[in-house]
# Entry
Amino acid sequence: MLQNKKFRLIIILGGIFVIVFAILFGISSVVLKSKHSEEIKSKITSVGGSIVDFESVNVNESPFESDSRGANTIYKITYSKDGKQMIAWYRAINNPLDIHHPSSKTLEEKWIFDK
# Structure
């Protein structure tokens, strides 16, 4: 009987741990996406453009194919400037606490503007 209670306690604690981890991961993802979105909007506005659309893409679909790590997110940004639609690429840092400073697992943030 005592062994059965220990087993249940371990299962319950394990379940709580998984739920808490999932919640924290979800919150972290939302915060990170929001910070990346703010950075993208700020940068495009600073070059005189306005956002049409942006999306995260697979590194193989970007100019960063040979210059990225798993802890970076790559964004393809479509924006308009002077009546033309243009493309920019942003290699973002996946650290919700500081999206501007790389860690040992990331490369620095970088922008590429297509001409």
